[in-house]
Specification:
Elements: E1 4-9, H1 13-24, E2 29-32, H2 41-44, H3 65-70, H4 80-93, E3 100-101, E4 106-112, E5 117-122, E6 127-135, E7 157-160, E8 175-179, H5 183-195, E9 198-203, E10 209-211, H6 219-238, H7 257-270, H8 286-303, H9 307-313, E11 326-328, H10 331-334, E12 340-344, E13 350-354, E14 357-360, E15 364-366, E16 369-372, H11 381-384, E17 387-389, H12 396-399, E18 418-420, H13 433-453, E19 458-461, H14 463-478, H15 508-520, E20 526-529
Parallel strand pairs: 1-2, 1-6, 2-3, 4-17, 6-18, 7-16, 8-9, 8-16, 9-12, 10-11
Antiparallel strand pairs: 4-5, 5-6, 13-14, 14-15, 19-20
């Protein structure tokens, strides 16, 4: 007999809710978490300025009305410390810690076909068997550090935004280099620049960023949200991204340039991720997208005084919003400071990290500290870091050698009773993650209930259903402009990683209905055995 009914890997938003739902079903469960605290993404990412780009009243659990009514957020966009405080509150409020083993990294999960069980091993020598194995490992949890020549010889301090020291870092008086200008860099650069004697920003690809317009949470908005949470959450679950933003069903090309300018300006002044919904075809029509991109380029030219620096900061090689649109506070203004230097790695690539700093093809920069804002091996990295073996001992790494294949982003053919929360092939990173997490956990919980009610030992995606779903995910992705960007959505930030569009772009509401239909049709596309 298995030691527990379910092993859950990860104690972030997904792992905690999965544990809560498992308990409600009367299942025994054990959560393994690599960190020495709960929180997942918000435990590790403590870099300066770390903040959610989804508004706090929406980036929160909906499963407990009492929780959402009683918890009080302080800002429009919650900071990392506040989100971590919230997650710890949830862990305590629902008495989750007693089933969580911290500072324990799962190293292997091997399926025993005869027993219909998963045998799980950890780096601390734990061995545990479970009927179900649920991967709540997160989409952005495997930090990526490029293999620069000379990296180990650097005499200064090195940091990655995705695994920041918990005590914080004081850059006062230092010469600091930061590599990368993605979301974490865009949040941290303004703060580091205010501390450092000089900040050198090493940019390969510029990003589009919109002001957050963050501030204290409006009391009237909070009252309205709490009075209307049930209906608001229902509509969010049926929306395209799990976020309720003002959408426009008109083409950007069907209005006058003056109308477009007014609408773009209104979105810019409001700030936040809703800009991509300004017109219905911004992500499907290149000509329409160009109008939005040019609006952003004009904003950058207006904000950055040095024309050459502004040009370097201006994206031109991919459509706007096909890399995740960034949300910032004073990012472009920071490049007007006399202690900030922008280095264009497209024209002057990094040659090596030296003991004293960093050398490009043109110059060497003396640095006291080096910050890697180089992102993650997104969506698959954390899963492939574990030795997962399914039927016949086949590894997940072998199965995904040409790119990840899943059914609904929830299950993998050949790996019975293994569930992946917000896995590749689901809306995941193209959505409000909490909405997608809750939907996946609820679906998994209901699936397990179905298996137990019908005396089934195992459920497994069929190869046919998996192939059809992968084809559908790619077809919908190809209908958009997303594949035109070399983004982490495509795995393009990891050398040698197959170029596959990883998330499902069909929409949160559409995807939810598909999952519900599959379950209603006796788990169509799955084989139930035992």
């Amino acid at each position: 007999m298995a030691d527990v009914d379910a092993v859950i890997v990860g104690a972030g938003f997904a792992g905690l809710y999965m544990l809560h739902r498992a308990r409600a079903l009367g299942l025994s469960a054990r959560v393994f978490e690599a960190g020495d605290g709960v929180g997942g993404t918000w435990y590790w990412n403590r870099y300066p300025g770390a903040r959610c780009d989804v508004e706090s009243m929406e980036y929160s659990y909906s499963f407990s009305d009492e929780l959402q009514q009683q918890w009080k957020w302080t800002e429009r966009y919650a900071s990392q410390p506040e989100i971590l405080q919230y997650i710890n509150h949830v862990a305590d409020r629902f008495d989750l810690r007693r089933d969580i083993q911290l500072e324990t990294r799962v190293t292997a999960a091997v399926y025993d076909e005869a027993a219909h069980e998963w045998n799980v091993q950890t780096d601390r020598g734990d061995r545990m068997s479970a009927r179900f194995c649920v991967m709540a490992t997160g989409c952005l949890s495997a930090a990526q550090v490029p293999r620069f020549d000379g990296l180990e010889r650097f005499a200064g301090a090195r940091y990655h935004t995705g695994s920041w020291p918990h005590a914080g870092v004081d850059f006062t008086g230092q010469q600091v280099g930061i590599i990368g200008t993605g979301s974490s860099a865009i949040q941290s650069i303004p703060i580091i620049a205010r501390q450092a004697a000089h900040l050198f920003v090493f940019q390969r690809t510029p990003n589009f960023s919109i002001p957050a317009r963050n501030g204290p949470l409006d009391a009237e908005h909070e009252r309205w949200m709490k009075a209307n949470y049930a209906e608001y959450r229902r509509r969010a679950r049926e929306s395209r991204t799990g976020l309720l933003v003002e959408r426009n069903d008109v083409s950007a090309l069907d209005v006058t340039p003056e109308e477009r300018e007014r609408e773009y300006e209104a979105r810019w002044r409001r700030g936040g991720l809703g800009f991509a919904a300004t017109y219905v075809d911004l992500l499907t029509n290149q000509e329409a997208n160009d109008t939005a991109a040019e609006f952003f380029r004009a904003k950058i030219r207006a904000l950055v005084r040095d024309a050459a620096v502004a040009a370097t900061l201006t994206p031109r090689h991919y459509p706007i919003a096909t890399k995740r649109l960034c949300v910032d506070t004073d990012y472009y203004d920071t490049f007007n400071r006399d202690n900030v230097t922008l280095i264009d790695l497209r024209t002057m690539p990094i040659a090596a990290i030296t003991p004293r700093g960093l050398r490009t093809s043109e110059a060497e920069y003396a640095l006291d500290s080096l910050v890697f804002a180089t992102g993650f091996d997104a969506m698959t990295g954390a899963l492939l870091a574990i030795d997962i073996r399914g039927r016949g001992g086949r590894t997940l790494r072998e199965k995904w050698s040409a790119g990840p294949k899943t059914y609904l982003g929830l299950a993998v053919a050949g790996f019975p009773n293994l569930f992946t929360i917000t896995g590749p092939g689901s809306p995941s990173v193209l959505s409000n993650m909490i909405v997608s997490i809750e939907q996946h956990v609820d679906w998994i919980a209901e699936c397990i209930t179905h298996l137990r009610a019908h005396g089934r030992a195992a459920i497994e995606a069929t190869v046919e259903a998996e192939e059809e779903w992968v084809a559908h995910v790619n077809m919908v992705g190809d209908f958009t402009l997303y594949p035109r960007a070399n983004s982490w959505y495509m795995g393009a930030n990891i050398p040698g990683k197959p170029r596959v569009f990883l998330p499902y772009v069909g929409g949160v509401g559409v995807y939810r209905r598909k999952c519900d239909e599959v379950a209603a049709r006796d788990y169509e596309g799955f084989a139930l055995t035992g």
